Amino acid sequence: MTPWPTQAGRHHSGMRRRYSVKKTRVAFIGAGQFANVFHYPTLSEMDDVELVAIADLNPELLSRTADAYGVPGRYADYQEMLEKETIDAVYVIMKPAPLEPIVLDVLSAGKHVFTEKPLGLTIEQTRRLAAAAHAAGVKTQVGTNRRFSRVLRTAKDLVLERGPISMVVGEFHKDMESEQFDMEVMHSDALHVLDPLRYLAGEPVSVHSHADRWYRKTGWAHSHNVYSAFMRFDSGATGVFLANRQSGTRFERFEIHGDGIVAYVHTPDIARIFTAGNSDPLEIHGKDLAG
Ligand SMILES: NC(=O)c1ccc[n+]([C@@H]2O[C@H](COP(=O)([O-])OP(=O)(O)OC[C@H]3O[C@@H](n4cnc5c(N)ncnc54)[C@H](O)[C@@H]3O)[C@@H](O)[C@H]2O)c1
Questions:
Q1: Taking 70 as the threshold, does the pLDDT of residue 1 lie above it?
Q2: Residue 268 Cβ contacting ligand 1 at under 6 Å
Q3: Class for the domain spanning 7-143
């Protein structure tokens, strides 16, 4: 196995800047579970971010989170927070059901917005939010995080060094008993594989697909729970998408095929890159690339 040169793969944004930068003033709406596991700890470590305020309906979660991260502004009413605080961007982190009116208010206040996936309960709701963001002229981002995986991005770059990507594969399987958020598995969860396929190969221009409901231990699934699709992308590449939610275990994998090169990627941990005539793969480890 060939060791991967750690520093060579490090992205420039991971390097510390010597000059002082204006801090982005960030507020949160939501001090719940996922936000506390990922977003509060991540943002609190960034030198160019200041956590200025939190709004949450739950007073205990509000004060516990604000205390943990030293956040001065504390509100039950997010509208009051938007009016009183000087804020550049707002993280709205909660289940998708209450999201739409809150995100619309944040957008009409002219703030940049980060939300978790799924952005909306339906495609129509998601389109309404996208149109409002466009009209507000602010930056928005949704937590479809696989496309930012260092191993996936590095693997893509290495394949592209030899020429265009000809074919991609994405699969994401789980043993899942119930639909998340009472919505289609595709919208809540399987999108975690479709989004990176778009990052790798472009926008789909044709899709041949099957979506099925397969029986589970607890009864018939409300949502489709077994998906397969063949796609052509606007780059000319073709792709395969597979997602099974009555499978034996959690399993997530991508393939990126190019000219005499293929990357087999298990995000976020490892990519193995094989080149023609060389049976010994180059291994890239996510922990080595992390900034
Ligand atoms: N990207 C990923 O890999 C990934 C993984 C797991 C979960 N998620 C996403 O994380 C999200 C769930 O986030 P969570 O676990 O923090 O949710 P949560 O339900 O634990 O917390 C939501 C918080 O928002 C507060 N809240 C609700 N309405 C409010 C309002 N009107 N004003 C102020 N506060 C309000 C609630 O009191 C609660 O504390 C989901 O969208 C899920 O898809 C993403």
A1: no
A2: no
A3: alpha beta
Q: Report the distance separating Cα 227 and Cα 171, nearest Å.
A: 10
Instruction: Judge whether 7-143 and 147-289 match in fold.
Output: no
Q: Is 114 in the pocket of ligand 1 (CB under 6 A)?
A: no
The set of residues, in sequence order, having a beta carbon less than 8 Å from that of 141 and lying 6+ positions away, is 113, 114, 115
The more confidently predicted of residues 108 and 187 is 108
- Beta pairing partners, 262: 257, 274
Give me ligand 1 centre to Cα 9, in Å. Answer: 33
Is pLDDT of 72 > 70?
yes
Give residue 261 CA to ligand 1 midpoint distance, Å: 40
pLDDT at 46 over 90: yes
User: Residue 55: CB within 6 Å of ligand 1?
Assistant: yes
Q: From the CA of 258, how far away is ligand 1's center (Å)?
A: 39
Determine if ligand 1 sits within 6 Å of the CB of residue 78.
yes
Element (H, E) at 78: helix 78-84
Dump pLDDT digits (tens) for 224-273.
899 999 999 999 999 999 999 989 999 999 999 999 999 999 999 999 99
Q: What is the pLDDT of residue 172?
A: 96
Quick one: DSSP state of residue 146?
Answer: G
For residue 17, what pLDDT band results from cuts at 50, 70 and 90? low
The residue count for the chain: 291
91 lines ligand 1 (CB under 6 A): no
Q: State in Å: Cα 31 to ligand 1 middle.
A: 7
For the domain made up of 147-289, the CATH class stated in words is: alpha beta
Give the start-to-end residue ranges of the domains of the chain: 7-143, 147-289
Taking alpha carbons only, the member of 83, 94, 116 closest to residue 29 is 94
117 C-alpha to center of ligand 1: Å? 10
Nearest ligand 1 atom, CA 189? 43
